[in-house]
Design brief:
Number of strands: 3
CATH architecture: Up-down Bundle
Shape: globular
Largest sheet: 3 strands, antiparallel
CATH class: Mainly Alpha
Number of helices: 10
Distance between the termini: 48 Å
CATH topology: Rhopdopsin 7-helix transmembrane proteins
Strand content: 5-15%
């Protein structure tokens, strides 16, 4: 099976690209935290602040992943000389650091998928028939992901990443892609349908959030597909896609939180409060007028804040 690019070159390139994305991710994460802390008024601010621990965990996981990559690079080229050099080092799937890196990636992916499932559950009006199938797929994804790490730990000497856990890796990638596509599509549809109602009522448009949800979903889906294609083709380019995916998970999370937060508080320039009671929409404007709209659909009450699920926890 041709690998197209030597594994040592692939690892160096993947670390370089991962570092670039990590820098952008760190900037976006700090920006998101600043926005959440600055716009901390009312219930929306409380809901958004509950997301901060999740953001910190994701940043910690991404930082640990990149540190492991740096240590592996130093060991491969400097401190752990062995027969076969760096190529033999990187092909050793039983290496504890390689297993640690895999566990970090799987955990980061599961956290991102879990957040996406919870967001989808809230946006879909907390329907259990939406939650249970997605949770079942998430559990299957977790089993496949950690089975990859176990397969590496018990692999026979001389086996490669392409022969050790082919079925587990393929299943894991396919399942996480399915979760991302299904949840993103469901959330986008809810935003689109709610956005049409909001425009009809003369409210602030939800299209900016619709666009960012679609874009982040497409970004992550493209990364997953790139990983699966390169892995199934037997290319070491899969290391590049894999390391980039670890950072993209957090970028997608921060972008959606950031866009939602900015959109919510842009509305406050035009309205002082918005409350939804029994399907009716009460708008108290910054002027002296007050209006009622009785045609709000069920679930519109959460058209902004439910895009970020942790606030409902």
């Amino acid at each position: 099976m041709s690998t197209f690019i030597p594994v040592d070159e692939a690892e160096i390139l993947s670390l370089f690209l991962e570092t670039l994305i990590y820098g952008a991710r760190l900037f976006i994460a700090l920006w998101t935290i600043s926005v959440v802390l600055i716009f901390r008024r009312g219930e929306d601010g409380q809901a958004q602040r509950r997301l901060l621990p999740i953001g910190f965990f994701m940043v910690a996981g991404a930082t640990s992943h990149i540190l492991v990559d740096v240590v592996r690079l130093v060991q491969a080229f400097v401190t752990v000389p062995q027969a076969g050099g760096a190529i033999a080092y990187y092909h050793n799937v039983k290496n504890p650091l390689h297993i640690t890196k895999t566990v970090l990636y799987v955990s980061q992916t599961l956290l991102g998928d879990g957040i996406l499932i919870w967001r989808c559950y809230i946006v879909c009006q907390k329907r259990l028939r939406v939650l249970f199938p997605l949770v079942a797929v998430w559990i299957a994804t977790a089993c496949c992901g950690y089975a990859i790490s176990i397969s590496f730990a018990v692999a026979a000497p001389g086996t490669t990443v392409f022969s050790t856990a082919l079925n587990w890796v393929t299943s894991f990638g396919s399942l996480t892609a399915a979760i991302n596509i299904i949840c993103t599509s469901a959330i986008a549809y809810r935003i689109w349908s709610t956005g049409r109602l909001s425009q009809w009522q003369g409210s602030t448009s939800l299209w900016p959030i619709f666009v960012v949800v679609i874009e982040t979903g497409m970004l992550y889906t493209a990364a997953i597909l790139a990983f699966l294609i390169t892995y199934l083709a037997g290319s070491n380019g899969q290391y590049i896609a894999l390391d980039m995916m670890t950072q993209i998970v957090g970028v997608s999370f921060c972008l959606i939180v950031l866009q939602t937060q900015l959109q919510v508080y842009t509305r406050t320039e035009q309205m002082s409060t918005i409350r939804f009671v029994n399907g009716n929409t009460r708008v108290v404007s910054t002027g002296m007028t007050e209006s009622w709209t009785a045609k709000a659909t069920k679930g519109t009450a959460q058209q902004m804040q439910t895009l970020v699920p942790a606030g409902e926890a």
